[in-house]
Specification:
Helix content is about 35%, strand content about 20%. It has one domain (about 20-265): Rossmann fold (3-Layer(aba) Sandwich). Helix 1 crosses helix 6 (about 215-230) and helix 6 runs antiparallel to helix 7 (about 235-245). By secondary structure, it is of the alpha/beta class. It is globular. It has seven helices and ten strands. It has helices at about 20-40, 60-70, 125-135, 160-180, 190-195, 215-230, 235-245, and strands spanning about 50-55, 75-80, 95, 110-115, 135-150, 155, 200-205, 210, 250-255, 255-265.
């Protein structure tokens, strides 16, 4: 299988209006923050830690990290597009506009590097991981969270839109991957990337949810449909019908799974 070649040249939704993108990020945060926080808590993030959040998005995990590490710790939050994190205003948070593939980054500086739904967009994810690992102190931790869109399926096959939904979603995310917009199926492979980056004590977990039209999982997918339409991978009539399905409270489905993988920089 060929790897995607999308580079970190532009934010996925850079042309989306601020209000719409802020809402899409809010849906993502509401849907996935509980798992992210559970994983970060499990690996022991605590007071005085120095953390790097790559691709901070709407900033919710940056804020959680800042509160968790306290005033004796610090968080550096980076993104290609900082419009939604520029106003965090916490004294132990530094916000940077930064391209992990190209821009300078301190070495041996952090206890933790975290990213969520970031490496899916990169061809050169090995370079991104190498830079993240180099930014860690010996014994520091990397934790990455990435998606698997193959799990998007209708659950109630008596619903009149179920067959259509399954068929279009299957074709859509294969096309997204084949046309190198992002790798929609990267999540389960992340432990292998971490091992290849030289990390030790690698662990992983995955989560899958049951969702309904109109809820937060449906919300971020619904707001992604016009973006994918604008990229030419989704016909306008399909985008409109999917938006309507994802707004229908009677429609039950499994959204994309989220996989976490973590590892330790060798001493």
């Amino acid at each position: 299988m060929s790897e995607p070649v999308q580079q970190a040249e532009a934010y996925f939704a850079e042309t989306t209006a601020d209000d719409s993108e802020r809402q899409r990020l809010a849906y993502i945060q509401s849907s996935f923050d509980p798992k992210s926080i559970q994983d970060l808590t499990r690996i022991g993030v605590g007071p005085e830690w120095e953390c790097l959040e790559v691709g901070a998005g709407g900033g919710s995990i940056t804020r959680w990290l800042a509160m968790t590490v306290g005033t004796s710790g610090r968080v550096v939050a980076t993104d290609l597009d900082t419009r939604f994190i520029a106003d965090i205003g916490m004294p132990n948070v530094e916000v940077r506009r930064h391209n992990i593939l190209e821009d300078e980054l301190e070495t041996d500086a952090f206890d933790l590097v975290h990213c969520r739904f970031l490496l899916t967009h990169f061809e050169d994810r090995e370079i991104a991981l190498e830079r993240m690992v180099n930014s860690l102190r010996p014994g520091g931790l990397v934790i990455v969270e990435e998606p698997d869109f193959s799990t998007i399926k209708a659950l109630d096959h008596s619903h009149p839109d179920s067959e259509y939904f399954d068929n279009v979603m299957s074709i859509l995310f294969k096309k997204v991957t084949d046309q190198k917009i992002f790798d929609a199926f990267i999540g389960p492979r992340m432990p292998f990337y971490l091992a290849n980056a030289g990390l030790s004590r690698i662990g992983s977990s995955g989560s899958l949810w049951v969702a309904s039209g109109g809820d937060d999982h449906a919300g971020h997918l619904r707001l992604s449909m016009p973006i994918l339409e604008s990229m030419g991978v989704l016909a306008s009539e399909d985008a409109l019908r999917l938006v309507n399905i994802l707004s229908d409270k009677s429609f039950k489905f499994t959204p994309f799974a989220s996989y976490s993988a973590w590892g330790t920089r060798r001493a």
